[in-house]
Amino acid sequence: MRIRIRNVEQVNQHLRNAYLCSTQPSVAPKTVLAPQPRPVIVDNGESSRYWVDPTNHMRLPKSLAAALYQTQNTQSKRSIGNMEKPSFQPKKVLILSKLTRYEFEKKVHKGCDDDQLATILKKRGSDYNRLLSKHKIHHSYLNTLQRELENAGIESRLVRRFGYTQEAVDWADAVFSAGGDGTFLMASSKVRTKHKPVIGINTDPQGSEGYMCLMRKLPEENLAGALKKLFHGNFEWLYRQRIRITVTGDDGISDAIELHDQQLNRDPSTARWTDNPRSPAREIDVEECMSLSPPVKKRMISESDKVVVPIEKETVELPVLALNEVFVGESLSSRVSYYEIGLNEEQMLKQKSSGITICTGTGSTSWHFNINKLTEQCVQDLMKIVAEHCNLPQIPHADKNAVSEICTKFNQQLIFDPDRRQLAFSVRDPIFNATFPPTDPRGFADKIRIKSRGYDAHLVIDGGISYRFNDGSEAVMEVRDEDTLRTVVFR
Amino acid sequence: MRIRIRNVEQVNQHLRNAYLCSTQPSVAPKTVLAPQPRPVIVDNGESSRYWVDPTNHMRLPKSLAAALYQTQNTQSKRSIGNMEKPSFQPKKVLILSKLTRYEFEKKVHKGCDDDQLATILKKRGSDYNRLLSKHKIHHSYLNTLQRELENAGIESRLVRRFGYTQEAVDWADAVFSAGGDGTFLMASSKVRTKHKPVIGINTDPQGSEGYMCLMRKLPEENLAGALKKLFHGNFEWLYRQRIRITVTGDDGISDAIELHDQQLNRDPSTARWTDNPRSPAREIDVEECMSLSPPVKKRMISESDKVVVPIEKETVELPVLALNEVFVGESLSSRVSYYEIGLNEEQMLKQKSSGITICTGTGSTSWHFNINKLTEQCVQDLMKIVAEHCNLPQIPHADKNAVSEICTKFNQQLIFDPDRRQLAFSVRDPIFNATFPPTDPRGFADKIRIKSRGYDAHLVIDGGISYRFNDGSEAVMEVRDEDTLRTVVFR
């Protein structure tokens, strides 16, 4: 059948439609046994007081990193996006650059020259030379990126976090993040359409695993070549599902709080700096808090209750999608969390725990992974008990390699395809008793509803943005096609 | 050999000395397979907004509760204390009574009569009748206790939490707590000598497991008889080890904060009430905060560093011993914790996790247990992987009973003797990578040192008392004989 092609987008749409009729649903990642090229694990010996380690929460032991790298790429072949003929030809590109640690320290210690700064840092156990070196590496990547965009005739604007506004994002056809995975998270947080690609450039391959970045740890000398590939269409689209959160509260929704300085009266300029939303402290800025769009308020009749929601309850869609996970639980780490949870359309169940995470495939390598993974110690103990209980001395609990392989396999099963249109929930330290009967603390669902019974609870998006979520509030979390994040990957 | 006996204490001392020469060190609890009488698990259907559930964090599934009940009693036979001839003949007894939920609500809603209160509670999903009923039960126990003490010629004083001062404790020869395990924790927190017994009376057998209380869930009609047994010496001493914490900080130690209302400007009288330190909110009171003795400050030369500690570092022994556990980690539940840990005299290791708990045998059924326990889902998954990996189809992963038994055995191994003179540490969600190499996240030590590398971290005792513990602070935790808590148990 001949069709008139007016533009690439039309071709994409056509191919997409054709594929949709025949697509297989996403499948769980297979266990991969063949040895794979291992990503280089670089020793980040940074011993500074502020562990600037944006993506440590996503790092895996070598054996798992390799498995993940293979798994995610293999699965993505099944993604719908792979049926589109890739093309990356934006006219206007926005670059979100992180602030380097060196830049931050210079800002904090205004008026100090570099020698003085070096002394101050040394007293704290930080290494000035390392900071400067990383700063230079970051800017080297950044300069190459800007130069290649210019050579390709693409207009670009460079912003840092405070200039990363919705307006700036709307202006652009595509967004690049220059930093680590944390910067990528920040960049994607303001992109709500699946048609605007977000591409991560890992400018700190030593410090960041770059799971969400192009080629993960692309050496700087290869960046120009990689960008050329991109402009020539030699790549594939990778679609990362995200979580949409709709909250109903007694008194509307509080404003978002950036998880940084929880201690009052602390001078913002001295707030601890890091690139990672899920690390201690981000530099706070009043304008930044305000730059988060206020939640979209809607009044709704609650279908599930079959009653009219009293007029004072407001339902809002949070303006930020979660790319990794949503955490719901008490703000205070040593306080027990109470809530009710309902999967899909099932009845709500009461739970008591240390909180719950709801994650995407992207997030399944992150906090979710660290909560659920088993250690070799644990696997060994269990194998020994099974051997004794079942009278099976052949079970190799004393064989370190066997234990390690079994441990790896178990942990690998925790990770799933970023493209999978389901949410994985994970209950931390679940407490079971007569009032709170045992349930599976891990599982999948298409939609998850949570009713807070909390005292000082919060709902935290990607470890960085927090909304108050106390007794009386309810949240619905789901994955929607239109919320998908479009990124790129090389095969 | 004849010795002149002047008093019972001398006999005790003599027996103690004799035993000390021959004592065996505490051993880990054995796995108990024989069926044991199961404690009654009562359904606490309380659906109130404020889950008044002091000890839910200590509840276990039936199979484990039974095992625990047997295990702890069996082990205690080996305790040194069992060689003393028991005698309980105090002249003066202090009774610490909890505030019942009913009393609290009446206080909060001053000026409302009971009908109005009933309406208010109903709107919140709470049951007025149940509250009143529990209130009466509590006072029935309390009256019996006071009456029996009087009949035995023992002077007693009754206080609630705000009257529970060091002065009051010092006045008494023994302390009774009337409430649940939470009240027992509170009572024992001010008893620093191992010669002053603390006895828990569980006045809420429906709501509290009473692990630390006499007979755990003693029916009210049996209380008088139990007390008579006590006065006649028909019991055994049970010694519970506790954790002493010594902290060295850059600027001394902050005042203790009771973990209750973290939100500023909240009227204390409306603060959420509970008996459990590790539940949301306790009713706060300025006088109460101040009634915690300020930490004992001492200047010390740090032996481990072999240098003179700079004059601005202060070393203080915290005035509260931990009976369950110490938690060290970031205050904010979604923030990653950084710290260094050293077991005994070993080198300090850097760690990154969601925090660490250090517990006693008493605490091993509590938070520590819930962090480390495996669920049947997890055990089944792992058994399946072992079966496939080792080609052992006989492994009964599909057999629910086998899985349940194996799961129980694994979890049971987490629990140890309250009398054991060691600390168990447990790292939550440990993050392993090149900077933070894998270590066993669970283990024992005689002494544990932690150096904070935290941003807004705290050190939390028994889930109720929190001390700021940021970068620059160090804590040493150990078990000392003189800190033992003396309690009673019936065989």
Gist of the model:
2 copies of one chain form a homodimer. With 491 residues, the first copy, chain A, is an alpha+beta fold.
Describe this structure in words.
The structure is a homodimer of 491-residue chains. The first copy, chain A, has helices spanning 8-20, 62-76, 101-108, 114-123, 128-151, 166-171, 181-189, 223-231, 286-291, 367-372, 376-389, 400-412, and strands at 92-97, 155-159, 174-179, 198-202, 236-240, 243-249, 257-258, 296-298, 314-317, 325-330, 337-343, 349-353, 356-359, 423-427, 442-445, 447-452, 457-461, 465-468, 474-479, 485-489. With 491 residues, chain A is an alpha+beta fold. In chain A, strands 8-9-6-19-16-11-12 form a seven-stranded antiparallel sheet, with no helix packed on it. A seven-stranded antiparallel sheet of chain A has the order 7-18-17-10-13-14-15. The first copy, chain A, has a four-stranded parallel sheet with strand order 2-1-3-4, sandwiched between helices. In chain A, helix 5 packs parallel to helix 8 (223-231) and helix 11 crosses helix 12. The longest helix of chain A has 24 residues, at 128-151. The first copy, chain A, starts with 7 loop residues before the first helix and ends with a strand. Mean pLDDT of chain A is 76; it is low at 1-6, 8-82 and 260-311. The interface between A and B is large, with 84 and 84 residues. Chains A, B: Its main location: mitochondrion.
